[in-house]
Each structure stands twice: as C-alpha cells, then as structure tokens.
Amino acid sequence: MSVNSSQNTPYMHEDKPVGNHNELSRQMTVSLSPEQYERLFFQPTAAKGDLAKRLGNPTLLGLMGFLIPFSCVVFNLLQFQGSSTQSMTSVSGSFYFLGGIAMNVAAICEFILGNTFPFVVFMIYGCHWVNLGYVYDPIHQIQASYTAGAIPGAISQGYNAGQGNYNVVMALITFCFLCGSLRTNVPFVIVFFSLVFLFSFSAAGNYQLGFNHTAEGIEHAIYYFKIAGGFGFVAMIMGWYLATITACASTGVPCPLPVFDLSGKLFTHSDAQKQEHAGSVQRPNAV
Fold it and tell me: What is the pTM of this model?
C-alpha cells in the first residue's frame, strides 16, 4: 500500500503477465492532504526529492522502538508492582534489540529521506538504549566491579557519580532537542520537556546514592527516582499519543486526535527553516 500526497497524481501499476493470462495488480491509494502527509514525519520542513513518497515512513518504527523500553523504565522508576531500578536488568534485552536496533534503523532511514532532526533524535536515543543495555547487562558486571568491602557497587560513590554525570549530559542533549522541537508539534515538545526533568532527577538520585549510603539516603534517592518516573510517565503518555496518530495516519485510518502542529505557527519567517534541510544549503554567490 502506498500513501501519496494530494499534490501528486496517484498511479497504478502496469499490467503484469502471469503465465498465459494477464492479471491486473491491485494497489490501494490513500489520499492525504499535504498537512496530513507531512505530519507523519517529525520534521518541520518538507524533504527534498521524492524518496519520502516512494519509501516507507520510518517515524513509527523509531517511536515504537523508543516507547517499549522507555515504558518499562518508567514503570521501574515508579516501582510499579514491586519493581525498582534494579529491575532494569530484567529488561536489558529490550534496550539492545528494541531501543538500540529499531531506533538506529529508523534513524538511518530518516537520514536517507533527508530528515535531519528525527535522524539525530533517533540515533542519539538509540545509542542511549544500547548504553543502558550494556550497563545493566549482568554479563558485564559493571555494578559489581565497584563493590568495595561491605558497600555494594550499585550504591557506591564511583558508580553513581559516573551515572549521575551521564544523566546530566543527557539532560543537556534533551534540552537541545527541546529547542529544536518547537516547530514540530505540541506532544513532541512535551516529551522533550518531560525528559529534561527525568534525566535531571535521575542524576539527583544517583548523586544522593553515592554520597549517602544509609537507609535514609537510599530512601531519599528513591524519592528522586519516583519524581523522575512521574515526568517519564507524562512523556510516555505523549509518546503513545503520537504513536497512535502516526499508526492511524500511515494506513489512512481516521483518527480524531489532533496533532497540534507547530510548523506553521512558530518562526515561520526565519531564513534558517528555509535552508535547514540536507541538500538545500545555499552557497553565497561568488563575487
């Protein structure tokens, strides 16, 4: 099934000979308005060329690859059904195969289509999931390597200081994405806004664990992790909201949910948004 923009004339395949008979191949064409078609991609500007019309839309794959392991992390941070941050080990496989592979494949496809912003977002978070999978994979025993005497490695200062620093960096990267998402749609902006605080409070929990190994300190760190999980829950809801809209739009199923597009409302007259796309960088005229 192909999805064509209303600006393009739908086409049908030519007759194909099968044995001694001619059978007409069938193709269902879903007509979408330009606004509906472009909202399938988390890219404020339209892609150059016709690759986006001839190839599949990788955005849904990237979304699902992010949401499946992310939802598990959120439930663990909120200690849903007795889970905890130590439950990350039980879902480390989803970090590798869903978060890592699915998101990086989607990122490469976005790069081929010329969608810079979703390409970078999917690639960075895809590699982030691979990193988490490596850290929590029991084969590598990273936490155990920090064990010193009676202090387990999971609450050691060295391990948690490193994890806290990493979460601070991820908060900074996510803030950059938040700024870039202001011309996409409202749910996407809310996702990045929530993720900034998720990484920030996760860093606070790691630092607390490293400096205070007492039961009171651990309880305080768990409190920070729960706050991080609360912000993550908001991001998770917005993510599944976008996934539902994208899944319906990709097959032409009517969906009453609004996407709250911002591409035509913010910074509409900036020169940067006209020249942003790969292949559209304009060189100054030679003197």
Answer: 0.79
